[in-house]
Amino acid sequence: MVVGKVVGSLFSTRKSEKLVGNKFMIVETEESMCGSGKRLVAIDIIGAGVGEYVLVAQGSAARIGCDMQDAPIDAAIVGIIDEGQDWSK
């Protein structure tokens, strides 16, 4: 998992049927937490908002964490961070 900050959302009217009804967020990963410091699109099944720090699972762990093993998901927000160290320095 990586830590990131939700910096936006996006909408897609045409997508795989397996993704219908899901929300997509743009997450900027934290470099100091083994992330790339780049942005990625993650499916959001827990209701994260812009500005929140989140835990993101990637690859097969993302699909399993969403209970959507057959969906084309590469990243998923699986937790919202309430409190933690200041890793952004």
Q: Keywords for this structure?
A:
globular; 38% strand; 89 residues; 5-stranded mixed β-barrel; OB fold (Dihydrolipoamide Acetyltransferase, E2P)
Description:
The protein is mainly beta. It has a single domain (about 1-80), classed as Beta Barrel (OB fold (Dihydrolipoamide Acetyltransferase, E2P)), CATH 2.40.50.220. About 5% of the residues lie in helices and about 40% in strands. The protein is built from 1 helix and 5 strands; from the N terminus they run ββββαβ. It has one helix at about 60-65; strands at about 1-10, 25-30, 40-45, 55-60, 75-80. Strands 1-2-3-5-4 form a 5-stranded mixed β-barrel. It is globular, with a radius of gyration of 13 Å.
Could you write a compact summary of the structure shown?
By secondary structure, this protein is mainly beta.
Indicate the topology.
Layout: E1 2-10, E2 23-29, E3 39-44, E4 53-58, H1 60-65, E5 75-80
Parallel strand pairs: 3-5
Antiparallel strand pairs: 1-2, 1-4, 2-3, 4-5
Task: Summarize the helix and strand pattern as letters.
Answer: EEEEHE
Number of distinct helices: 1
Level of helix content?
under 10%
DSSP summary, beta strand count: 5
